[in-house]
């Protein structure tokens, strides 16, 4: 079968022939319907090096996948061949306190996971291939009626990651509140939709690109603000001077972290999702009182079920552009150059 493999750090992936996987006991092979292209893959190609992660290439890219059950290993029950499924991407040890409640991203026994702090497309072979081997059937989540794999794939990361980041701040997002989304790309545009579908917050979207702000408006943003310039003043004004109850930074650069802290309200959450390599200096008078800063990594398995429900009911609908496996590099180049709207999905 074909697979788009990252062969080494600081390189672009290559489309190569590899053997088709066969499932061992408890495992599942999924025929890939779609694999989303994530900006994290660009970090894997260009920013990471030996020692950045507890694993190394080579492996097949694609950590945002959905498709159909193709083959079941011995002992797997409750799934049938041909059934449409999403793949839950973070693969923990399965037995620690966190994995037991479906929070694999924060697995406390990484040495017991297939690879520490990774999954398919992140240290192990992922979904940018004709088939993906899922090492434990618990990661295979049946799709609800009304959701096909191409629409479901982006929900497993571009949907699940913002969903988790928003859900943990639901208590701040009552009527009268404001949420700011910085970076309206693959994750951010779904984040805007999730805020609109699950909270009463007024949503302000920030990006450097006019196209992205246009997409934010289509996704229901109440106000769009170009990054830089007088963004801080515009957002402060829009909140009656108070600031935002939640800032979601889907970029994570110095400039966006600074912006986030400058527009956050007293008693608020500044949640960093983007892996832009920036830092936020914090001292007593430099940030709002009781502004909590957190990074978040992906989301839980129960949250994936909730996101898929939002998708099946049409409340959250990622904007996707399809590419073949042989066009995957084009998709990544367009992401790098800022000429993609929403999410690119690779359809093998
Ligand atoms: P993307 O390329 O699709 O979107 C990024 C958006 O940010 C683009 O619209 C871009 O124009 C905008 N942007 C860039 N610089 C900006 C600035 N200074 N101000 C405002 N907007 C700016 O990327 P994506 O796939 O949505 O991923 C976003 C980030 O989240 C990446 O760093 C990725 O690695 C990270 N990520 C984190 C997790 C996690 O679990 N924490 C999961 C997935 C992705
Ligand atoms: Zn990702």
From TrEMBL:
Keywords attached to this entry: Metal-binding, Oxidoreductase, Zinc
PANTHER family: ALCOHOL DEHYDROGENASE 1-RELATED, VACUOLAR PROTEIN SORTING-ASSOCIATED PROTEIN 11
Family matches, as SUPFAM superfamilies: GroES-like, NAD(P)-binding Rossmann-fold domains
Cofactor(s) named in the record: Zn(2+)
Enoyl reductase (ER) domain mapped to chain residues: 2-346
Source organism, top-level taxon: Bacteria
Pfam families per the UniProt record, alphabetical: ADH_N, ADH_zinc_N
Family: Belongs to the zinc-containing alcohol dehydrogenase family.
The protein's name: alcohol dehydrogenase
Catalytic activity, as annotated: a primary alcohol + NAD(+) = an aldehyde + NADH + H(+); a secondary alcohol + NAD(+) = a ketone + NADH + H(+)
Top-rank EC class of the record's enzyme: oxidoreductase
Molecular-function GO term, any one: alcohol dehydrogenase (NAD+) activity
EC code: 1.1.1.1
